[in-house]
Amino acid sequence: MNRTRKLTVALLSAAALVAVTPSAALAAVPPGHGRPAPAPAVPKGKLPDVFARAGYPARAVDAKIQAAWRQLFHGDPGTAPTHADGQSIYYQLSPDMAYVEDIGNQDVRSEGMGYAMMIAVQLGHRHEFDSLWNFAQTNMQIKSGGEKYYFAWHADTTGKVIDTGVAPDGDQWMAAALAEASARWHDGAGTYDYGRQAEQILHAMWHASDSGGVNMFDAASHLPTFSPPGAVGFSDPSYALPAFYKVFAKADPSDKALWDKAYAAGEKLLQDAPNATTGLSPCYANFDGTPFMWPGETADDNAYSHNFQEDAWRVIANANVDAAWNGVKPWETQFSNRLERFFEGQGVTTYVSRYHLDGTPLPSGQNTYEPAHAQGLVAMNSTSAISATDPGSRAFVEDMWNTATPSGQARYYDGMLYMLGLLYDSGRFRDFTQPGIH
To answer: What residue range is the signal peptide (predicted)?
Structure first.
């Protein structure tokens, strides 16, 4: 969900935030709840590794990933109260609770908690995973009513909920991270029964209406809605995560038929939403893939909803993670080739971060994202090399390799996408629920 634009619907209303000074010391790692994970073995062949294809040695790739982890999770926290001059986005609130902070807005978002949990399980950092999950479950998960098991989309850094509206990307990422944790580390009791916790969240996505709530997925299109319970008449293409739906079908077996339909619908939205010439997707879309506009917006204005801005960057990786996990499909190659050709025309190392879908850069007043060549978009664009056959693919991988780990005020969103991009590009973003992955 967009972290900078103030939405006009009541369920996502803005609120004043109060930051707290985190503890600089990390707590001791609590006892594990299962066996340690050995190195992954992939009988059917390794996941696509575009860094290796570009000639980067495995040792250098490992070092780059570990350096990014240390900086974003255990680097300089920055000066309170804003932390804008720091490196880390992970803050240990107590021995068993931690949060990831949106530095620019000084709040905690379900999206970021899901990203960070997934990064932690991918890299085998169980203490950080459990600390993040404890914070999210204790403070952000809705405990009663029709939306029970959903998560409030943002809270302050003490855990106080600011808005009980729901951002489905965050819920999906947390559920996926829990399912992967269950497969990698096995399940414990209560909070640490990762598989059961994932199943509860996933089941609610289709059956909240049974308890008087609003389902997260649209019954007709089988796509995630924008923000239940209030804004459910449209979607966000970056919320379509088909690779995860294969995992969800195993984690929530009673709804396997629905997750299979969500997989097909998610792939279709990722094909329908991008512009046929540029490959650029809108941030929000109707269920048929056409750009969504709020009342009063027009097709040629600079509004966030129907132009290519921060939410839409993630569409690129969503298609290519599916390609990595489930095999490259012709439409994924066509999409990635089209997108790369567009950005090659803009200059691989100099393109800006916000565009109209036809490829026209937004005006300078609407294109002030810092840095202008945003690290998060660089990371997402580099994943196109997973499925692309365009001769220029290597340049996008090199641009990612030469991009520094984000720091400063914009390090939250850019940092999360950058860290994920390193895992995607290196073939180290694994589905532990598949046979042979440990």
So the answer is: 1-27
Question: Is 18 in contact with 156 (CB distance < 8 Å)?
Answer: yes
Q: Are residues 102 and 177 in the same domain?
A: yes
Residues 61 and 135 both lie in one domain: no
Q: Pick the catalytic residue: 101, 102, 107, 111?
A: 111
**Model confidence, pTM:** 0.90
Q: Assess whether 346 and 389 both reside in one domain.
A: yes
Whether residue 297 lies in the annotated active site: no
Co-location of 264 and 333 in the same domain: no
* DSSP code, position 285: B
Same domain, 324 and 216: no
Kindly report, residue by residue over 108-165, the tens digit of the pLDDT: 999 999 999 999 999 999 999 999 999 999 999 999 999 999 999 999 999 999 999 9
Task: Count how many domains the chain has.
Answer: 2
The one-letter code for the residue type at 435 is: P
Is the residue at 11 inside a domain?
Answer: no
φ, ψ dihedrals at 305, nearest 5°: -60, -45
State the CATH number of the domain containing residue 239: 1.50.10.10
Asked whether the bond before 31 is cis by omega within 30 degrees of 0, the reply is no
370: annotated active-site residue = no
Structure confidence by residue, pLDDT tens digits, 167-182:
999 999 999 999 999 9
DSSP secondary structure letters along 212-265: TS--SB-TTT--B-SBTTTB-SSB-GGG--HHHHHHHHHHSGGGHHHHHHHHHH
Q: Domain containing 284: what range?
A: 48-83+275-429
- Are the C-beta atoms of 376 and 414 separated by less than 8 Å? yes
Same-domain check for residues 132 and 169 = yes
Q: E strands, 45-200, where?
A: 90-94, 97-102, 107-109, 152-155, 161-166
